[in-house]
Automatic annotation (TrEMBL):
<dbReference type="GO" id="GO:0050661">
    <property type="term" value="F:NADP binding"/>
</dbReference>
<dbReference type="InterPro" id="IPR029154">
    <property type="entry name" value="HIBADH-like_NADP-bd"/>
</dbReference>
<feature type="domain" description="6-phosphogluconate dehydrogenase NADP-binding">
    <location>
        <begin position="6"/>
        <end position="165"/>
    </location>
</feature>
<keyword id="KW-0560">Oxidoreductase</keyword>
<protein>
    <submittedName>
        <fullName>2-hydroxy-3-oxopropionate reductase</fullName>
    </submittedName>
</protein>
<feature type="domain" description="3-hydroxyisobutyrate dehydrogenase-like NAD-binding">
    <location>
        <begin position="168"/>
        <end position="287"/>
    </location>
</feature>
<dbReference type="GO" id="GO:0046487">
    <property type="term" value="P:glyoxylate metabolic process"/>
</dbReference>
<dbReference type="InterPro" id="IPR013328">
    <property type="entry name" value="6PGD_dom2"/>
</dbReference>
<dbReference type="Pfam" id="PF03446">
    <property type="entry name" value="NAD_binding_2"/>
</dbReference>
<dbReference type="Pfam" id="PF14833">
    <property type="entry name" value="NAD_binding_11"/>
</dbReference>
<comment type="similarity">
    <text>Belongs to the HIBADH-related family.</text>
</comment>
<dbReference type="GO" id="GO:0051287">
    <property type="term" value="F:NAD binding"/>
</dbReference>
<feature type="active site">
    <location>
        <position position="174"/>
    </location>
</feature>
<keyword id="KW-0520">NAD</keyword>
<dbReference type="InterPro" id="IPR036291">
    <property type="entry name" value="NAD(P)-bd_dom_sf"/>
</dbReference>
<dbReference type="InterPro" id="IPR006115">
    <property type="entry name" value="6PGDH_NADP-bd"/>
</dbReference>
<dbReference type="InterPro" id="IPR006398">
    <property type="entry name" value="Tartro_sem_red"/>
</dbReference>
């Protein structure tokens, strides 16, 4: 029998499905739960097991991993008579890899401690491609001993794995990450429109820009989206809108000014208001095109 910890995985979306499958490939016994039957079928086809409820999934798990859209969903699956804390065994390790508010993570850790459940907040960066390729950046908040215990699991999911501080620290760093990514995508989108309106060969321009100081992971990952106008969601505008709300609120709480971030947050919100919330965040290009009078 395997000596690896038994894992319950709650949330099998764009990120959760490939991440849970990578744990199956690494030899872990993974039992998943989500609301979409086709996602459960996908996990089963990959060699995992499925459960009919949160309670069933977590009951015998050594490690419980959650990957859901936002704070309300984390609270919904964690609390209440049908939630994780009511059914997880004492001593289990709960790793929340969702992107939520730092305070939600702090509150969850405090509530879990009363039930004998340990918690790490461990949001990720790298998008769908990073999840599939198991090269995510994982920013973790919590205790050193729990982080050390979870590290082999993280190593099956990502390449850059850092304990950033106590509970909530991972979420704070993730908020900063989303600020940088949004501003970077916006800058790239503006450059694309500027280049095209100037009559420059866009592919050639992006190739040379990518090799210089203007190069970035964002440009490398999203270049083909810009070139092909392919906005199939790897990370949806709806979710980045949520994340910009998190970083804006957190920055206000600590007294940090985010003048450029505030503008980009409004541009993300406007794109969502125009019906593009389900598109990839590289669709910020569409907002710049509209502002520039270009055909979208």
């Amino acid at each position: 029998m395997s000596t690896l910890p038994k894992i319950a995985w709650i949330g099998l979306g764009i990120m959760g499905s490939p991440m849970s499958e990578n744990l199956v490939k690494a030899g872990y016994q993974v039992t998943g739960f989500t609301l979409e039957q086709e996602k459960l079928d996908r996990l089963a086809a990959a060699g995992g097991s499925t459960a009919g409820s949160v309670a069933e999934a977590v009951r015998d798990a050594d490690v419980i991993i959650t990957m859901v859209p936002a704070s309300p969903q984390v609270e919904a699956i964690a609390y209440g008579p049908d939630g994780i804390l009511a059914h997880a065994r004492s001593g289990a390790l709960l790793i929340d890899m969702s992107s939520i508010t730092p305070q939600t993570s702090i509150d969850l850790a405090r509530a879990a401690e009363e039930k004998g459940v340990r918690v790490l907040d461990a949001p990720v960066s790298g998008g769908e491609a990073g999840a599939i390729e198991a090269v995510l950046s994982i920013m973790v908040g919590g205790g050193q001993a729990d982080f050390d215990e979870a590290r082999p699991i993280f190593e099956a999911l990502g390449k850059t794995i850092v304990l950033c501080g106590p509970h909530g620290s991972g979420q704070t760093v993730k908020a900063a990450n989303q600020l940088i990514v949004a501003v970077n995508i916006q800058a790239c989108a503006e450059a694309v429109v500027f280049l095209e309106k100037s009559g420059v060969d866009l592919k050639a321009a992006l190739d040379v820009l990518g090799g210089g100081l203007a190069g970035s992971t964002v440009l490398a990952r999203k270049k083909e989206n810009f070139l092909d106008r392919d906005f199939k969601p790897g990370f949806r505008i709806d979710l980045h809108h949520k994340d910009m709300g998190i970083v804006t609120d957190a920055a206000r709480t600590v007294g940090a000014a985010l003048p450029v971030g505030a503008v980009v947050a409004q541009l993300v919100a406007s794109l969502r208001a125009q019906g593009d919330g389900g598109l990839d965040h590289s669709a910020l290009l569409r907002a710049v095109e509209r502002l520039s009078g270009a055909r979208v």
